[in-house]
Amino acid sequence: MSKNGAADALKTFELENNIQTIDHDQLFKYDPQQYQQFLQTKPWSKDPHYFKHVKISAIALLKMVMHARSGGKLEVMGMLMGKVENNTMIIMDSFALPVEGTETRVNAQVEAYEYMVEYLELIKQTGRLENALGWYHSHPGYGCWLSGIDVGTQSVNQQYSEPWLGIVIDPTRTVSAGKVEIGAFRTYPQGYKPPNEGPSEYQSIPLSKIEDFGVHCKQYYSLEITYFKSSLDQQLLDKLWNKYWVNTLSSSPIFSNRDYITGQINDLSEKLEQAETQLSHSRSSILDKKKEESLLSKVSKDSSKITIEQVQGIMSQVFKNSIFNECQTTKQ
Q: CB under 8 Å to 229, separation ≥6 — which residues?
């Protein structure tokens, strides 16, 4: 039963995240000379929006999610390995870094950089040709975006280590939503003013983080993410999934995310109070009414999101109970 359950859960994971199977020969094709010529031309220096797409292997995705979940409330950090094809960055693997994390930031010390350099040297000795292509870190419970510190880190790396990508994963919301909450970002060059783009997809930001999000949100842009796997990945993916599945099976998003849920409700309450204060002090102009409607609309979206996550958590528990407990009762 557990094997069938794990296999079904893996299929669901692949469907939820739309993981596509591709030809492994095409995936591992690599021309060092052609890649060096590409690096020398530096097309991204002429077009700040040059990189538009990110392809992430299912193995790299699962390793990042497992690492992010292991950190709990603390942020974790790791490196991305891969290659570039035209305007697409392909992430083929990832590895964790031994860094000190807090609930709001990760601090890479000298030991972490030494570990990273040694790791990269060792994998080249094994014949692997992937390059360091970026970094990832977690935002437990407050969404996928770049803070002021993240923008600074990404900008420095893009200045000295191009091409470079920044990925953010929210392990808490991943557990609640059932789908991986992830974002891929690149910063703009200093002094660059991006065009006035239309509204991006709305995401719920805690009230305590809104100011940090708003100040820096025009300094970077997000890339479209797709996922892939090859036939050669399947055996390793199955082994990784069995470990992930056991942890997922033995936990409930309702219980494991108690603090997150409580925090979300408190945050929603503060946003409602803020909206109420603005309503009571605003003038009856069309502009004020639009601002009020926008604020209330965001509160409504946040409320719907919390409700949907709780319903999904309850449904998950009902399914587990019917599969494992009721089946045992029937056999007896």
A: 14, 19, 20, 21, 22, 57, 58, 59, 237
Q: What confidence tier does 134 reach under pLDDT thresholds 50, 70, 90?
A: very high
DSSP count for the chain of H helices, then E strands: 13, 11
Residue at token pair 């919301």: 173
| DSSP per position, 158-185 | HHHS-S-EEEEE-HHHHHHHSS--EEEE
Residues of the chain with pLDDT > 70, as a percent, come to 67
**Please, are residues 171 and 138 in contact by the beta-carbon 8 Å criterion?**
yes
In this prediction, residue 50 carries a pLDDT of 94
pLDDT score, position 108? 61
Q: Per-residue pLDDT tens for 214-233?
A: 567 788 999 999 998 887 77
Q: Provide the token pair at 76.
A: 């974790």
* Terminal CA-CA length for the chain: 16
Q: 42 Cβ partners below 8 Å, 6+ apart?
A: 162
How much is the pLDDT for 326?
59
Contact assessment for residue 92 and residue 63, using Cβ atoms and an 8 Å cutoff: no
Angle between helices 234-249 and 58-70 (to 10 degrees): 30
- Phi/psi of residue 146, nearest 5 degrees: -105, 125
Vertex 16 angle, CA 66 and 26, to 5°:
80
Q: Burial-class residue 60 by CB neighbours within 10 Å (0-12, 13-18, 19+).
A: buried
